[in-house]
């Protein structure tokens, strides 16, 4: 499986500010995904990021709040904008396995633990 | 959109006994059903998955069964060990969506 890293691993931010989370993969992948895991909860898909096109957002998530970039096949960023305490969560990126057949297995990065004060 | 229900939310079993976690889904177009294990402070780890053209899959002490007609799938862990203690999530994929829809999770506790 691909090796996925995220930066930062954790951060404490003030409300009203923005944080950009980076996701780096050690191989080229077509699909990258961003999920949110609120404290003690399950994972919720925020958006799908394809290289060369606009990200596709799930219901309840908007581009103004969570802008995403996907400049190439190994890298993506998620920005959490104008943060409030309700944004305190773990943010995880994930990628599809690059071999085999669809539907593909999906692997997760280590996550970014965000606390908004 | 897809809705995934997972039960139970907490499961406590004696070491050596079996554990079963069940999930139901709503989208008949879903065609991929993975299970993830998440230990405290760690990322979700894929432990087993099943595709819609298969009814059962086994990997050592772990098995997954799928009933597409009834739209439910289950995780079976036999001979449970202390290291099996974790939160387990079921998920679905397919029906035109590429991301995963997760159940709410099951906290599995293995009692020594």
Task: Write the SSE topology.
The complex is a heterodimer of chains A (117) and B (112).
Chain A: E1 4-7, E2 10-13, E3 19-25, E4 31-37, E5 43-50, E6 56-57, E7 68-72, E8 75-80, E9 89-96, E10 106-108, E11 112-116
Chain B: E1 4-7, E2 10-14, E3 19-25, E4 30-38, E5 45-51, E6 56-59, E7 62-67, E8 72-77, E9 86-94, E10 97-102, E11 106-111
Parallel strand pairs in B: 2-11
Antiparallel strand pairs in B: 1-3, 3-8, 4-5, 4-9, 6-7, 7-8, 9-10, 9-11
Please tell me about this protein's structure:
The complex is a heterodimer of chains A (117) and B (112). With 117 residues, chain A is mostly beta strands. Chain A contains no helices and eleven strands. In chain A, a hairpin with a 5-residue loop joins β5 (43-50) and β6. Helices cover 0% and strands 50% of the residues of chain A. Chain A is globular, with a radius of gyration of 14 Å. The model of chain A has no long low-confidence stretch (mean pLDDT 93). By secondary structure, chain B is mainly β. Chain B has no helices and eleven strands. In chain B, strands 2, 4, 5, 9, 10 and 11 form a six-stranded mixed β-sheet that branches. In chain B, strands 1-3-8-7-6 form a five-stranded antiparallel β-sheet, with no helix packed on it. In chain B, β7 and β8 (72-77) form a beta hairpin. Chain A binds chain B through residues 31, 33, 35, 41-45, 48, 58-59, 92, 94, 96, 103, 105-111, and chain B through 1, 31-32, 34, 42-46, 49, 51, 89, 93-94, 98-105.
Main attributes of the structure:
heterodimer; A: 117 residues; mainly beta; 4-stranded antiparallel beta sheet; globular; B: 112 residues; 6-stranded mixed beta sheet; 5-stranded antiparallel beta sheet; 11 strands; 0% helix
- The oligomerization state is heterodimer
Unreliable residue stretches of chain B: none
**Based on helices, strands and strand pairing, what is the structural class of chain B?**
mainly beta
Shape of chain A: globular
Arithmetic mean of pLDDT of chain A: 93
The percent of residues in helical segments of chain A reads under 10%
Chain pair with largest interface? A-B, 22 and 22 residues
Helix fraction of chain B?
under 10%
Taking pLDDT < 50 over at least 5 consecutive residues as the criterion, the unreliable ranges of chain A are none
Tell me the total number of β-strands of chain B: 11
- State the end-to-end distance of chain A: 36 Å
Radius of gyration of chain A: 14 Å
Q: What coarse outline of chain B follows from CA principal-axis ratios? A: globular
- H/E series of chain B: EEEEEEEEEEE
> What's the pLDDT, averaged over the residues of chain B?
95
The helix tally of chain B amounts to 0
Number of helices of chain A: 0
- What separation lies between the terminal Cα atoms of chain B? 41 Å
Task: Work out the strand percent of chain B.
Answer: over 45%
Describe the biggest sheet of chain B? 6 strands, mixed
């Amino acid at each position: 499986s691909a090796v996925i890293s995220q930066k930062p691993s954790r951060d404490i931010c003030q409300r009203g500010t923005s944080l950009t989370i980076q996701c780096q993969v050690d191989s080229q992948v077509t699909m990258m995904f961003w999920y949110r895991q609120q404290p003690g909860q399950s994972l919720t898909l925020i958006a799908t990021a394809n290289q060369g096109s606009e990200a596709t957002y799930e219901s309840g998530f908007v581009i103004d709040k969570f802008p995403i970039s996907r400049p190439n096949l190994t890298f993506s960023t998620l920005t959490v904008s104008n943060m409030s305490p309700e944004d305190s969560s773990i943010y995880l990126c994930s990628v599809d396995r690059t071999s085999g057949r669809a539907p593909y297995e999906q692997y997760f990065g280590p996550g970014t633990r965000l606390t908004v004060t | 959109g897809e809705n995934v229900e997972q039960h139970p939310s907490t499961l406590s079993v004696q070491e050596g006994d079996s554990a079963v976690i069940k999930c139901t889904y709503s989208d008949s177009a879903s065609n991929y059903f993975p299970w993830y294990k998440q230990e405290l402070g760690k990322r979700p780890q894929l432990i087993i998955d099943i595709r819609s053209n298969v009814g059962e899959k086994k990997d050592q002490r772990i098995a997954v069964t799928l009933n597409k007609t009834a739209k439910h799938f289950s995780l079976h862990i036999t001979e449970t060990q202390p290291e099996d203690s974790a939160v387990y999530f079921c998920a679905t994929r397919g029906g035109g969506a590429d991301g995963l829809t997760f159940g709410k999770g099951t906290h599995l506790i293995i009692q020594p």
